[in-house]
Write a structure and sequence with these properties.
This protein has helices at 12-23, 39-49, 59-68, 77-85, 103-111, 121-137, 147-156, 181-185, 189-192, 202-210, 212-225, 263-271, 303-314, 318-334, 342-352, 362-380; strands at residues 2-7, 28-34, 53-56, 73-76, 92-95, 115-118, 142-144, 164-171, 232-236, 242-248, 253-257. The chain is an alpha/beta fold. Strands 4-3-2-1-5-6-7 form a seven-stranded parallel beta sheet, with helices on both faces. It has a four-stranded mixed beta sheet with strand order 9-8-10-11, covered by helices on one side. Strand 5, helix 5 (103-111) and strand 6 (115-118) form a beta-alpha-beta unit. Helix 6 packs parallel to helix 11 and helix 11 packs parallel to helix 13 (303-314). The longest helix is centred in the C-terminal third of the chain and has 19 residues, at 362-380. The radius of gyration is 20 Å and the shape is globular.
Length: 383
């Protein structure tokens, strides 16, 4: 039996991971769960999957849950999250936390020799070199859960990486693919959150609307696969049938295709290197895919994608600055404090005046992240 802990079990990826595990129950059990404040859903998950450990954000919630579930060890806060991630009984830690919260638990798991199924882009965006070096030193598998990176991971199997010509990361284009800049300037929250293909959490859905999500994926791919940025191309593919591809030096292009479903990459990360039937998905009918289209991204309409390329190449803490500013700006937008198009302006202004640290330590990363967020909050006051 493989023991799995899910950090962020009540979020979109966390819920879908539990759906996958429910179909793999003969081989997998839930060792631990964590969530922020969605306690009612967490209770239902506890009753169904019977974890040994549970971590919540607040001490008060942990104390109340202890009264209900007396045979479970309840933890809380960042310290509890790190204890949960460090539990050596785990075979796989699924990091489905949003934003910066995923970094410390990922590092804790790696240092304890636990394989990580990573669904948190920001971990590699902010500290990719450190995290990948730790993974190599501790000889653990860092398995991508994002559909794009899972696709590339699968397309690379059995091939020599020195023969790679380029990585092709596909993007649906989000809700504003066929809209004008003027439409985006006046976009309402419901329009931004209306993703045409994927059902995701609010933060990642906003990032998909600005194409920042794809910029983060470019940086993540650079670290995961040790590929130069000049060999990573983003391709707009509205149908979301090809999840990404690899072009090799002989001209061959190997792509991973399938219906838009996060269950497939989640399951592959859990069962790797095996493939199992597991959760039922609709059979893929190639005959119905008569119109697959591909476009160059519009870097003028979506400036954050180009910014991510540039800052990724610059390295150091520049991607961290971009990510932290973006997180705070997106949160402000979701709270109705700024307009959608302000996200671009805020991120661009923050990186414009930022002093890069070329070779940061892990302490530098946490300190810089804190500083950038504080400065971004000050900037938000002027909007």
């Amino acid at each position: 039996m493989k023991k799995v802990t899910i950090l962020g079990s009540t979020g979109s990826i966390g819920r879908q991971t539990l759906e996958v595990i429910e179909k793999l129950e003969e081989d997998y059990i839930i060792e631990g769960l964590s969530c922020g404040q969605n306690i009612e859903l967490l209770k239902l998950q506890i009753e169904k999957f019977h974890p040994s450990f549970v971590c919540v954000e607040n001490k008060e919630d942990a104390l109340k849950l202890r009264e209900i579930f007396k045979n479970i060890k309840f933890l809380y806060g960042e310290e509890g999250l790190l204890e949960l991630a460090s539990n050596n009984d785990n075979n796989v830690l699924v990091v489905a936390l949003s934003g910066r919260a995923g970094l410390k638990p990922t590092i804790a798991a790696i240092k304890n020799g636990i394989n990580v199924a990573l669904a948190n882009k920001e971990t590699l965006v902010t500290a990719g070199e450190i995290v990948m070096q730790l993974a190599r030193q501790n000889k653990i598998e860092l398995l991508p859960v994002d559909s794009e990176h899972s696709a590339i991971f699968q397309c690379l199997k059995g091939n020599n990486r020195s023969s790679i010509n380029k990585l092709l990361i596909t993007a649906s284009g989000g809700p504003f693919l066929n809209k004008t800049e003027e439409d985006m300037r006046h976009a309402k929250l419901n329009e931004v959150l209306s993703h045409p293909k994927w059902n995701m959490g609010k933060k990642i859905t906003v990032d998909s609307a600005t194409l920042m999500n794809k910029g983060l994926e470019v940086i993540e791919a650079h670290h995961l696969f040790d590929i130069d940025y000049d060999k990573i191309n983003v391709v707009i593919h509205p149908q979301s049938i090809i999840h990404s591809a690899v072009e090799y030096c002989d001209g061959s292009v190997i792509a991973q295709m399938g219906l838009p479903s996060m269950h497939i990459p989640i399951q592959y990360a859990l069962t790797y290197p095996e493939r199992v039937q597991g959760i039922k998905t609709n059979s893929f009918n190639l005959q119905k895919c008569v119109n697959l289209s591909f476009y160059e991204p519009d870097y003028i309409k979506f400036p954050l994608l180009k910014l991510a390329y540039n800052l990724g190449k610059e390295g150091g803490t520049m991607p961290l600055c971009m990510n932290a500013a973006n997180e705070e700006a997106v949160l402000a937008f979701l709270k109705g404090k700024i307009k959608f198009f302000d996200i671009n302006n805020i991120v661009l202004k923050m990186v414009e005046n930022y002093n890069n640290i070329k070779n940061p330590s892990i302490d530098d990363i946490f300190e810089e992240d804190k500083k950038v967020r504080m400065k971004t909050l000050d900037l938000l006051k002027s909007f």
